[in-house]
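In this notebook, the sequence line spells out the residues, with the fold written below as integer tokens. This is how one looks.
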Amino acid sequence: MRKSAYRVCGMVLAMAIAFGSAPVTTGNALAKTDETTKIKLAEDPQVAPDIKDPTDQTAPVVGDVPSDGALPPLGAGSLMLDKTSINAMAGKSVKITLTNIPGGTSTLSGVTFKSDNDAVAKASKIEYAADYTSVTCTVELVAAGTTVIRADAAGNTYSCDVRVVKAFGKTDFSMYRPTNFVSYFKKRAKKYAWYYDGEWGKPNKYGSTYRGIRIGKTVNDVIREYGDIELKKCSKKSDPFLYEKQFNSGKKLKVSKYTEFVYKSGKINYRLRIYFTSAGKVHGFIYLAGKSFDKISKADYKRGRRAGEKLI
């Protein structure tokens, strides 16, 4: 029998969702032991250099500048973009950097960034490294779709493919049964609420996230629906839900990493946290409203469990 539970403490609500299964095709990154791992379909970008406005007169001038003030020509050299692809949610901004620019002059002319489709993503602010050997462009992700950002320099064009997925919002909480979790929280809860389940339940029409992520889906499945994600190491110290038997067997956790998405409405943050096993499979997910996971104390959690449990 499915044991989905809706827990209420005063105005506190707890709920659960079950998933289906799918084969695993990725997940090697979950074996890493670092606290945070950025996971992308493309290669991880290099770290962009410190940047300054070229009009800043205090910025250093590196290299020889002709006595007549003329700038040396900008040669193609070994110029390259630090990213060849972007895969992220609408509403965010991502920086791309054209590196290895020769000359070290105090200004760079002839370097431009443009988008093939400004309705999907547009090139906006341009900044220069302190030593003027790289140029960084901020790319604003506007709406779901695909486009290409092109950097033109020294007669050459350098391209970055951009894929934008729908912004995370209220509709992402629509799989809460039988109404929207955000709407329900606003009507019934005052402080905080949660709703969770996972592989321990039986699939039903509510057994996935709004974007179709179910039990057994892989890291890459999540990336395709939500854009590039950041994986963090699971810890009971910052997540009281991991004390539940569904997430651990004795002292050993059944989950290894998680990723989290946040939607803000008014003063309330609504969170979706997806948990992965060490093999890279989705194990379960939790909706949480009103508090962040690390602010839910053991006392909060136990208080919610002691309150009358109501089966959904």
